């Protein structure tokens, strides 16, 4: 970010359009780096690599910080962020040798760390140990990565300023004033936020209203100091200083509605020299309008957890699990389609759930002890706690449950949708954006209870939840497309439309020969939009992030 010099012709800076794609800024620091140099300390530099098709590719590198084992790098790494992908990052720290640049010899390697963009975004701040080759710790070395979204989607503010009775700096005419607003950053440097147009020959100018993002104006911190400067324009670039004042966005907000806020425009030199000096004019904020626009990352970084539930179809049409033709056959060398779909989607979701516990349910089977048909049983057979530890826990519960149940029918999914909806309804009552629910239904056929399912989906569309249905096997899934509202609006049997489209249906066979990431990408691509739509409809802002502690994950849901 370049701070504009006074020689620039004052023209309003163009405002960046709201980005569709999220971009994330990563700031890096290290502590207790290894000392590789004999006479002085290491000169560290960080390389950022991203995995692409199994290969690590260098994305960018930081500056070199001379002789420092606890460097805080000024370089800001910017990466594109996709919720529906696992984006693997690797940070490598090297000791640099002047003109030779950054060597990649083992002697110069100070340590590396791997993580995903999702983990950094969910935790906001990640501190991890650095490792040398072969998994050996690099002494006590650690690396800290802090993330901040820069999509500009955190809202913008519209401001309208005027001034009165400004000092006249021109000999034969009146001043030609313009106003500049600077944000004062934590390191006391100043960043130009906005420069108004010049109003010619006028000591009481009214400037055109303008819009700036809250991120740009005050880094979304209402108490951050702002410096506002009024200049008399000079065509040769030697603008005359009229005066300045300091304020905050918090103070500016008093100008909402009919109120106005005003500041004395002060020239510090005159204040010292002139005994009766009052001011060099007054600047008035006539109007302030806030337009808040939240993004998916705002909610995630505010502590919103994604709670993941998987529901597995155990109806007889899957075939006897002991038979190798069955969709539920456990092949020791090759996961079946149910497991492939579960792992592909679950691996993305687990980065956004701090306790890494997933609810795992089954439907359409006769279950012990009485072998009655159930359409919403816990596959770990614990009715009081259907959660499994991580994706691996779900896989293990699935494999151990198969020999204990009898595959039966029919394919009723409304009970499971309603079960998750009850938990989501409890969450909604908190009136906070703290938990959002994703239900993944894996089924081998068209649902039998279509009317009840449509009713349950319409009800669920008012709650913080999304439903992903993956069709496993070779059945004709044409009727399932009706649940995915892409072709039209899904309605309940009574004709009530869904509030928002929350269902994504995909036949697994379309991804059979593709990588698991392709399936996850397809079914999860809509989720960020669905999360934002729900919380926007409810007018729930993101929660305030909890204070960062170096290794803390997201705060637990309330």
UniProtKB/TrEMBL annotation:
Family classification: Belongs to the copine family.
InterPro entries in UniProt: C2_dom (IPR000008), C2_domain_sf (IPR035892), C2B_Copine (IPR037768), Copine (IPR045052), Copine_C (IPR010734), VWF_A (IPR002035), vWFA_dom_sf (IPR036465)
Keywords for this protein: Repeat
Boundaries of every VWFA domain copy: 307-506
Domain C2: 2-130, 137-264
A GO cellular component annotation in the UniProt record: plasma membrane
SMART domains in alphabetical order: C2, VWA
One GO BP: cellular response to calcium ion
The keyword Ribosomal protein is annotated on this UniProt entry: no
Presence of keyword Membrane: no
Alphabetical list of SUPFAM superfamilies matching this protein: C2 domain (Calcium/lipid-binding domain, CaLB), vWA-like
GO molecular function, a single term: calcium-dependent phospholipid binding
Name of the protein described by the UniProt record: CPNE7 protein
């Amino acid at each position: 970010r370049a701070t504009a010099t006074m020689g620039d012709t004052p023209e309003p800076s163009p405002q960046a359009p709201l980005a569709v794609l999220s971009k994330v800024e990563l700031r890096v620091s290290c502590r207790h780096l290894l000392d590789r140099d004999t006479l002085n300390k290491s000169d560290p530099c960080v390389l950022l690599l991203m995995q692409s098709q199994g290969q690590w590719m260098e994305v960018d590198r930081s500056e070199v910080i001379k002789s420092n084992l606890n460097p805080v790098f000024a370089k800001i790494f910017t990466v594109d962020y996709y919720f529906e992908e696992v984006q693997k990052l690797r940070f490598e720290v090297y000791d640099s040798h002047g003109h030779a640049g950054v060597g990649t010899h083992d002697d110069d390697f100070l340590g590396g760390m791997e993580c995903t963009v999702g983990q950094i975004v969910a935790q906001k701040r990640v501190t991890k140990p650095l490792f040398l080759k072969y998994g050996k710790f690099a002494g006590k070395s650690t690396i800290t990565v802090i993330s901040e979204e820069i999509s500009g989607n955190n809202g913008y503010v519209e401001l309208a300023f005027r001034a009165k009775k400004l000092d006249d700096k021109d000999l034969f005419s009146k001043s030609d004033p313009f106003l500049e607003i600077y944000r004062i950053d934590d390191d006391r440097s100043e960043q130009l936020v906005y420069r108004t147009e010049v109003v010619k020959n006028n000591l009481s100018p009214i400037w055109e209203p303008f819009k700036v993002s809250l991120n740009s104006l005050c880094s979304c911190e209402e108490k951050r100091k702002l410096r506002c400067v009024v200049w008399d324009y000079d065509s040769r670039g030697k603008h005359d200083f009229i005066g300045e004042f300091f304020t905050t966005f918090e103070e500016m907000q008093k100008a909402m509605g009919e109120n106005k806020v005003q500041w004395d425009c002060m020239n510090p030199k005159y204040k010292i020299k002139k005994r009766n000096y009052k001011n060099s004019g007054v600047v008035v904020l006539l109007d302030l309008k806030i337009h808040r626009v939240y993004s998916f990352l705002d909610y995630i970084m505010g502590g919103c957890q994604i709670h993941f539930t998987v529901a597995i179809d155990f109806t007889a049409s899957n075939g006897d699990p002991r038979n190798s033709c069955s969709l539920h056959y456990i092949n020791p060398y090759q996961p079946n389609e149910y497991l492939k779909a579960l792992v592909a989607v679950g691996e993305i979701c687990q980065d956004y759930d701090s306790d890494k516990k997933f609810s795992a349910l089954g439907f359409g089977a006769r279950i012990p002890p009485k072998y009655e048909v159930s359409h919403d049983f816990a596959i770990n057979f614990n009715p009081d706690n259907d959660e499994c530890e991580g994706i691996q826990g779900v896989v293990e519960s699935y494999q151990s449950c198969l020999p204990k149940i009898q595959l039966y029918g029919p394919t009723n999914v409304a009970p499971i949708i309603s079960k998750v909806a009850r938990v989501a309804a409890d969450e909604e009552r908190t009136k906070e954006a703290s938990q959002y629910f994703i239900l993944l239904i894996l089924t081998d056929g068209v649902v039998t209870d279509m009317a009840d399912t449509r009713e349950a989906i319409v009800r669920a569309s008012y709650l913080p939840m999304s439903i992903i249905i993956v069709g496993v096997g070779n059945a004709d899934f044409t009727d399932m497309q009706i649940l995915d509202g892409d072709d039209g609006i899904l309605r309940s049997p009574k004709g009530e439309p869904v509030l928002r489209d929350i269902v994504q249906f995909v036949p697994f066979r379309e991804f059979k020969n593709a990588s698991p990431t392709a399936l996850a990408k397809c079914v999860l691509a809509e989720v960020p939009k669905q999360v934002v739509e729900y919380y926007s409809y409810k007018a729930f802002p993101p929660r305030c992030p909890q204070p960062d502690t170096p290794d803390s994950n997201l705060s637990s849901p309330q």
